[in-house]
Amino acid sequence: MELSLFNILNILGTVAFAISGALAAMDRRLDIFGIFIIGFVTAIGGGTLRDTLIGSTPVGWMENTVFVYLIGGVILLTIIFRNKINYLKRSLFLFDTIGLGIFTIIGVEIGIRNELDPIISVALGAMTGTFGGVIRDILCNEIPVIFHKEIYATACIFGGLVFVAMHSLGIDQDLIYITTSIIVIAIRIVVVKYEISLPYFYIKQKN
Amino acid sequence: MELSLFNILNILGTVAFAISGALAAMDRRLDIFGIFIIGFVTAIGGGTLRDTLIGSTPVGWMENTVFVYLIGGVILLTIIFRNKINYLKRSLFLFDTIGLGIFTIIGVEIGIRNELDPIISVALGAMTGTFGGVIRDILCNEIPVIFHKEIYATACIFGGLVFVAMHSLGIDQDLIYITTSIIVIAIRIVVVKYEISLPYFYIKQKN
Amino acid sequence: MELSLFNILNILGTVAFAISGALAAMDRRLDIFGIFIIGFVTAIGGGTLRDTLIGSTPVGWMENTVFVYLIGGVILLTIIFRNKINYLKRSLFLFDTIGLGIFTIIGVEIGIRNELDPIISVALGAMTGTFGGVIRDILCNEIPVIFHKEIYATACIFGGLVFVAMHSLGIDQDLIYITTSIIVIAIRIVVVKYEISLPYFYIKQKN
């Protein structure tokens, strides 16, 4: 595996989601294997869905043992340093947001590489970014974070649209990766900090 | 995309499920992106599972941008006309039933086209018809409609069996599509109207 | 389908999971189609996930009608003899454990046959063994059995590690199948009987 920015981002996103999964599992007081399983599934969930849908099988982590050892090591470190990591306020939120931003961009990029339509690539990016967290929350019996009022998916989709716009302008790829990852992460942090919410549409009740 | 009856039915089923997803999301008071996501996932869920299981990847909606724009447009119209649509009593039920009937038949047809065994094709049809609604209900935190007492899956399976029977008799394909779609839709409506239910089997408690 | 030990084990695991699914559905008082659907999904869930992830599509049960008829027949017999089967104390637990042991080993074997890394093959085995039960529990609205304190997944992973160790020593394949299936089943039974549990890691609360 060469050390391109793409691969470095892939590793960072994987690490962030593995930490977020392990933290969520410890928060739910699962035993040590529960922690490993949730950490692993959170880290690989988005990429596994993406690879399955585009037919890139065996899915990514199966062909690259590095990721399995990486995830295992990160979960172990998260368990050992659990009290220090948790000292960072909202650390679960932070790591989840970093994973979201990076995995969204990786999903969009892989869509474009597979010559999918730009709008489809954005959808693929949004799925790659959000699916790990959705599984984590379902397995932990929480309402998926994607449906909190935090405009979680909106951040992905906006970042994805900027990605395909920059790509069509022929901008340098590494610059696109960095810019759009930061956009997704920044939108989510700003939205949560200032409690911005999207409009709702109620159906009038006719009794 | 040519305008065969198969494609027209595919479009109708997609539209019906997109409406049912958007209505369910508004009923759960999700924000505007929640409405789009649930509408989209409901509309593509069944076909995505079907294509993944038979290995027809990238899955259908990824290769055909028309469906993505169609679903987006339908969800937007559902939001705008939400109060009028809801004026139709049990409209969610109606659109879900239409989607169910049509997607079941499309799934059976695709199974047969892929030279799967007729009984397997019926199972594939039942999965195609029901999976979008199952995901919609899980994401909306409802008990999946498939397990209501409405003989939801039974309608699919019966329609699928009629499909393979008519197909083996060499009956005209368009006639098969229409007849069997109507059968599935009619069974579900009749069953709900007359509150027919299937037998239960309790396990005797030995305390 | 030739009658190798591999195929016999595959049939036994399928039968065990079909029974466990049908029992769980009757316990939840689902109607007859609910019983068939849960039984079917429990029996094919693990293999379907495995085949999808490695790209072996159409997935196994679609190419082999024998399994569909087998599952249907087993569910029917489970319904007919439901009171006798339930007379065996903890029968759901027993059949679930047998399915778990056998399907884990089949998953590891298929991973190795597909030239996946040994550690990846163990992960594939654990997924194959546990996924049917996870879907069964989600559809029955239970907390997935994988997260009970019974070291469910641990049994799989330990059995899988023994499998790849024996395989690398060149031990006779049929002997490996039998030994490791029994190891997984025995671990789970012993763990439940003696109420062994794995360590937990709490996060210190800082208020």
From TrEMBL, chains A, B, C:
Q: Does the keyword Transmembrane helix apply?
A: yes
Q: Tell me where the transmembrane regions lie.
A: 6-25, 32-49, 61-81, 93-112, 118-139, 151-169, 175-196
**Protein topology in the membrane:** Multi-pass membrane protein
Q: Where is the Glycine transporter domain?
A: 8-81, 94-167
Coiled-coil annotated spans: none
Sorted keywords for this record are: Cell membrane, Membrane, Transmembrane, Transmembrane helix
Predominant location: membrane
GO CC list: plasma membrane
Q: Where in the cell is it found?
A: Cell membrane
Q: Name one Pfam family in it.
A: Gly_transporter
Q: Domain of life here?
A: Bacteria
Answer whether the UniProt record assigns the keyword Signal to this protein.
Answer: no
Which family does the record claim for this protein? Answer: Belongs to the UPF0126 family.
Would you tell me the protein name for this molecule?
A: Uncharacterized membrane protein YeiH
Q: Specify the species.
A: Salegentibacter echinorum
